[in-house]
Hints:
2 domains, five-stranded mixed beta sheet, Phenylalanyl-tRNA Synthetase, Chain B, domain 1
Amino acid sequence: MRFSYHWLQTYFDEKLPEPKKLAELFTFHSFEVEEVITEGDDATFEIAILPNRRHDCLSHRGIAREISVLTGIPLARDPFREKVPVWNTAKGFTAMVGDLEGCPRYMAAYMHGVSVGESPDWLKERLRAVGQKPINNIVDATNYVMFELGQPLHAFDAEKFAGEGDTIKVGVRSAKEGEPITVLGGAEYILNKNDLVIIDGISDSPLGIAGIKGGTAGEMTPHTKNIIIESANFNSAWASHGRVSSV
């Protein structure tokens, strides 16, 4: 996985060791650094994260904590220790889980009045530094959170949900054998009962393959005004068994 030196520096007030020195510390004490790439005034580390450390080090926050231990430089900030405002639950919006083994926890938030457009330059630069292509401010924000904190997110166009009056439901269930889905990019897949899908809770139609790829049914457009943001924990053991077949 790629990590940006400048991005990691944002976690510290004290100047970090130079990229080459930092790479040596990782290689001798934590993880193998496969490559250090210098682009402009930033450097990118290609780090091989071991399976037993993926739960806490597949993010810039996790690597920053590792740096703090290796160098003795204290963290100046930790997003998980910052207070965040409490959101009110949107009236008529609910989330449901039909497979607790495959999805132990599913959370979603409803946001209205968004404007889809370009991301600010600083955000585009951070995503490019780790090999990601900026798309728009909503998608880029979800990707930023994943690379910053290690929690994948996905956003759906709320207006594309079936709805019953003011009621909107999003959920998770096991796929039906032979159930089709078209994912972002246009590829079509045939699902089986070992797959887990995100669904429109009212129409029961699949919106994405859980933890793998979003579907076109809930795809955002430049005209999207209301979104549903998904934050879930999918069972990794289940995920390793899931299979999809292309049409």
